[in-house]
Specification:
The complex is a heterodimer of chains A (about 110) and B (about 110). With about 110 residues, chain A is mostly beta strands. In chain A, about 0% of the residues lie in helices and about 55% in strands. Chain A is built from no helices and 11 strands. Chain A starts with a strand and ends with a strand. With about 110 residues, chain B is mainly beta. Chain B contains no helices and 12 strands. In chain B, a hairpin with a 3-residue loop joins strand 5 and strand 6. The chains are: A mainly beta (about 110), B mainly beta (about 110).
Chain lengths: ~110, ~110
């Protein structure tokens, strides 16, 4: 079992819809959870982080964390073509290392 | 504007060559990291450093070494390049104690070993 798992996609959603990206992790002691966005040919950039169970909202982005079920998700409301990118989930576990998932490719079509 | 600068965007080397990948950050960050990114495997940590002259092995250190003689510079060394080291290499830095533990990435070096 991979430490951080994501569906590779692509996830295709129409412009204006909600995109839902999911991530599961294996280390039950994990404390910190991150979402990075990576445009094609570019480097990852941090868009959200969450430490506590529940929801955290930042503009059109909402991160959701459920430690009991060991999953974290990212919702993108009112998706735009400019949101088309690969979204990387990253988890910091007991070892204090940041473990990345392989990413989910999101395509938002007009 | 904060920056993590990697010396080369593209690099082509031959098997057996010694390869140096350089990374410089201008944000006075304590922490620096080297990752490689491969399709289907995601970002994997090679080495990291939390202080000058300090280094720690990541998840895939075999075939690599690092050097951090100055706070702003973190070098990745491929002692004897092999074809399975063909990859995108990403350097990153972060600030200890930052509320969001944000990693700042360089633009990457696409290394091809022939």
């Amino acid at each position: 079992q991979k430490e951080v798992e994501q569906n590779s996609g692509p996830l295709s959603v129409p412009e204006g819809a909600i995109a839902s990206l999911n991530c599961t992790y294996s280390d039950r002691g994990s404390q910190s959870f991150f979402w990075y966005r990576q445009y094609s040919g570019k480097s990852p950039e941090l868009i959200m982080f969450i430490y506590s169970n529940g929801d955290k909202e930042d503009g059109r982005f909402t991160a959701q964390l459920n430690k009991a079920s060991q999953y974290v998700s990212l919702l993108i409301r009112d998706s735009q073509p400019s949101d088309s990118a690969t979204y990387l989930c990253a988890v910091r576990g007991n070892t204090d290392k940041l473990i990345f998932g392989t990413g989910t490719r999101l395509q938002v079509f007009p | 504007d904060v920056k993590v600068t990697q010396s080369s965007r593209y690099l082509v080397k031959r098997t057996g060559e010694k390869v140096f990948l350089e990374c410089v950050q201008d944000m006075d960050h304590e922490n620096m990291f080297w990752y490689r990114q491969d399709p289907g495997l995601g970002l994997r940590l090679i080495y990291f450093s939390y202080d000058v002259k300090m280094k720690e092995k990541g998840d895939i250190p075999e075939g690599y070494s690092v050097s951090r003689e100055k706070k702003e510079r973190f070098s990745l060394i491929l002692e004897s390049a092999s074809t399975n080291q063909t990859s995108m290499y990403l350097c990153a830095s972060s600030w200890t104690g930052g509320e969001d533990e944000k990693l700042f990435f360089g633009s990457g070096t696409q290394l091809s070993v022939l």
